[in-house]
Design brief:
This protein has about 170 residues and is of the alpha+beta class. Helix content is about 60%, strand content about 15%. It contains seven helices and two strands; from the N terminus they run H-H-H-H-E-E-H-H-H. Helix 1 runs parallel beside helix 4, helix 3 packs across helix 4 and helix 4 packs across helix 5. It is flat and about 85 Å long.
């Protein structure tokens, strides 16, 4: 492929492969030695370029989504183990259980249902309720500290000496 020139035989296939590698339009343009504007023109002029961009990204995204889903839910995979027994190499295919991964589950849920699983609530009313809850917990903790000081017979910060050790 000649850099910077459209080749109907190679350019769409190269673009498809770059999309599989998660390259964005700017990176694809740079690798092909063209401007982003030229890539956009090619996309509008040549249906196979638009198709290569779409197919490559959809294929890569669906593969990643599938693997992320497997990690989130856990899965059983196959592995080949290699052993050496009495000087002889032995291979054994085994099934391995991969447990669910909470990090993968969190990523999946945040992207599939952001309104329910976002890190920071969008609703300001939720934030106000959280502030009220934190204030109530802080007051309760202060009350517990005051009550503990009253029960110990001293005021906050005052040391009570033991008559046997004095």
């Amino acid at each position: 492929m000649i850099i910077g020139k459209y080749d109907p035989e190679q350019t769409p296939e190269t673009i498809y492969k770059l999309c599989l590698l998660s390259a964005n339009n700017e990176e694809i343009s740079s690798i092909l030695g063209i401007s982003r504007e030229t890539l956009n023109q090619w996309k509008n002029k040549y249906a196979e370029v638009a198709d290569a961009l779409k197919r490559g990204r959809e294929f890569a995204d669906s593969n990643v989504a599938s693997k992320l889903y497997q990690r989130a839910c856990g899965y059983v995979g196959k592995e080949t183990r290699v052993f050496c027994f009495q000087g002889e190499v032995i291979t054994k295919d085994i099934e391995v259980h991969y447990p669910p991964d909470t990090g993968a589950a969190a990523i999946w849920l945040k992207n599939r249902h952001p309104d329910k699983w976002r890190d920071h609530p969008k609703n300001t009313e939720d934030g106000k309720n959280l502030k009220r809850l934190l204030d109530a917990l802080q007051k309760e903790a202060e009350f517990d500290d005051e009550e503990e000081n009253e029960n110990s017979g001293g005021e906050s910060g005052e040391q009570i000496s033991d008559p046997e050790t004095s």
